[in-house]
Amino acid sequence: MSEFLELTVDKFTFRFATDRYYHPEGVWARPEGDGRVRIGLSDFAQQSGGDVAFAEVKPVGTVVAFGEEVASIETMKTDIVVPAPVSGTVAEVNPALEMTPEVISEDPYGEGWLAVIAATDWEADRAHLMDAQAYLERVREVAEEEMRKK
Amino acid sequence: MTEVYDVAILGAGPGGYVAALRAAQLGMRVALVEEARVGGTCLNVGCIPTKALVTATDLLARARRAAEYGVRIPEAAPDLEGMMAYQRAAVERLVGGVEQLLKEWKVTVVRGRGRLVRPDALAVADGAGGTTEVVVRHIILAPGSVMARPPIPGLDLPGVVTSTEALDVSTLPAHLIVIGGGVIGLEFACIYQALGSRVTVLEMMPNLLPGAADEAIAKRLAVVLRRRGMDIRTGATVQAVEEAEGGLRVRFTTAKGEEAVEGDRVLLATGRWPNTADLGLEEVGIRMNRRAIAVDEYLRTNVPNVWAIGDAVGGMMLAHKAMVDGRVAVENIAGQKRAVDYRSVPSAIFTSPEVAGVGLTEEQARQQGADVRVLQFPFSANPRAQILGETEGLVRIVCEAGSGRVLGVHMMGPHVTELIAEGALAVQTGATADDLAWTTHAHPTLTEAVLEAALGFQGATIHYHRKT
Ligand SMILES: Cc1cc2nc3c(=O)[nH]c(=O)nc-3n(C[C@H](O)[C@H](O)[C@H](O)COP(=O)(O)OP(=O)(O)OC[C@H]3O[C@@H](n4cnc5c(N)ncnc54)[C@H](O)[C@@H]3O)c2cc1C
Fold it and tell me: Are the Cβ atoms of A77 and B464 closer than 8 angstroms?
């Protein structure tokens, strides 16, 4: 089971699983230990998007570079273009997304994973990612900024 | 008996009857040869009866959701006989309307089966042993198309039907298996599903609507239909239809190997072929393009004064395309020089939700080497769609990255078969995304989804946010 950090801004609470790394655009990456890296949306990213209507991940076999679009997620408010937090080849796509894309909102760190990527150089990519604490601090800044704008 | 006309048209479908009316308008003496009823496939067993069924099943679906709108409809249920009567009435009204127009324009309708006997003559067999020879200056061939029959064993088993029999919804199958996930197959799949049948669709290609829709849209449609409980298998090649206990079994292969489904009715919807057999074409030396009649951009065949239009020339087999062909051929006969221009022929697919498109798809535009940009807007962010409670779908505008010139527009969602007209106009006139974006669209309407997508060209979409 993952452990979580929590951040509450105004009436929203965001969770951050501590067993993985984060791309600043709100994508998590968790190495599976076999050269493969599971990826998904952070709780903050999914909450700011709203209810997910449709999720489309690049098909198995697609080669993606760090930062390139690996999925797009249509919510009621926005289209989230998901950048790959790791370079490699899409090896698995979450089969649950087609029929029940809402799993992304319900369980972003678990059942709502997006894809598994066979990484080309995970160690190099990891250097560009943040740990849960660093990502939490970043979200705090972004969320507080949003609050001030309201 | 011999009669002489300026132009004779073989086949009174949308291609043929429009050609006849236009020719009469231009002062020609016109004979229209038809062995069945005027209106052709479209009015009698195609576009019109299917759309009557779609209209009825849409109403049924909406009535069942009445509570969402705060309207009490205690028991919304199909009345299958009533639905058949409604379907027949729609067909009769339109066929009657065409007959009336033909009469008013003094077009002579010659009943019987026609055959080209010389480049300037048709022999029409009246079915009772009599033959009339119609001698003319010009002949327009408009014999339409017939259901394709691929070489699959078992297609003649009872319970295997084509679209024409599928129009009869007076008895419903418990489980309908549709072979072919193209336009006709999917329209019927949605109709029968709405009426309560379980439906399985088998499509050989990797996506639904192959060649008939933008790939991204076709994928979305598959997802939406699956979420509604339709069983859709793509990449499924049907091997055989067999008798099974209490019904029929369809065997097919996929990447996973051999599979089979059992049902009590099978709809064969694997496309249509030009209806060109036994028309005397070979004898007169008409050049063919496989089953289709070969024509040039003016719709001339290789034989002088013989023209061909509509489904019989292949390409897009759509009623409105056949109608345009009819006008083009006749105007050329009248001495103008008008080439066909198919850039803005829209496709309108009456599935639920509807799908429509015009111009190039994203893939086609990229293949042609264009520097492409795709602007998207989902109906979930459109106020009218939200009020309707029909938010599944989106608008995609394919445009040139630099100029914004609209190359294609593709949509899935409520009433997109109507909305696509704007896309057709944009493609035909070379409009840009900015032209669409500065055309004021009424609020709150579904058309605003086109406006909002177009606004994306300047990064100015107002009611939606695309994070990149
Ligand atoms: C179930 C179904 C649904 C469809 N829905 C749509 C839709 O929603 N929108 C759309 O655009 N298209 C639709 N189509 C396609 C549309 O019906 C055709 O594209 C259109 O009818 C083609 O017109 P046409 O004039 O070329 O030929 P047809 O409509 O096929 O007409 C040909 C006519 O020629 C006659 N004929 C043929 N040979 C002879 C002969 N030797 N002598 C005398 N008469 C002859 C036939 O009896 C027929 O009346 C649908 C088709 C089907 C089957």
Answer: yes
Q: What is the pLDDT of residues A5-58, one digit of tens each?
A: 999 988 889 999 999 999 999 999 999 989 999 999 999 999 988 888 889 999
Whether the predicted pLDDT of B32 surpasses 80: yes
CATH number for the segment(s) A4-149: 2.40.50.100
Choosing from B441, B443, B463, B465, the catalytic residue is B443
CA of B318 to the centre of ligand 1 (A): 8
CB contact under 8 A, A79 and B466: yes
- Decide if pLDDT at B104 tops 50: yes
How much is the ipTM here?
A: 0.77
Identify the contact set of chain A against chain B, taking CB-CB distances under 8 A.
Answer: 25, 53-54, 56, 74-81, 98-99
Closest CA to B203 of B174, B183, B175: B183
Is B410 designated active site?
Answer: no
The CA-based angle B157-B163-B167, given to 5 degrees, is 105
Is a pLDDT exceeding 50 seen at residue B468?
Answer: no
CA-based nearest residue to B328, from B71, B1, B83, B18:
B18
Where helices occur in B105-195 by DSSP H, the ranges are 163-166, 183-195
The residue whose CA is least distant from atom 2 of ligand 1 is: B46
Residue B48, ligand 1, Cβ within 6 A: no
Residue range A65-94: average pLDDT? 92
E-strand spans in B215-279? 231-233, 237-244, 247-254, 257-263, 265-268, 272-274
3-state helix, strand, coil in chain B (%, to 5): 35, 30, 35
From ligand 1's centre to the CA of B91, what distance in Å?
A: 14
CB B351, CB B187: distance < 8 Å:
yes
Identify the structural domains of chain B with CATH numbers, from first to last: 2-147+273-333 (3.50.50.60), 160-270 (3.50.50.60), 353-458 (3.30.390.30)
Q: Do the bridges between strand B465-467 and strand A78-83 make them parallel or antiparallel, or are there none, so unpaired?
A: parallel
Q: pLDDT tens, B73-98?
A: 999 999 999 999 999 999 999 999 99
The single residue listed with the structure tokens 């089969």 is: A95
Cβ <8 Å between B465 and A77: yes
| Ligand 1 atom showing the smallest separation from residue B37 Cα | 49
Residue-wise pLDDT for B39-82, tens only, equals 999 999 999 999 999 999 999 999 999 999 999 999 999 999 99
pTM: 0.92
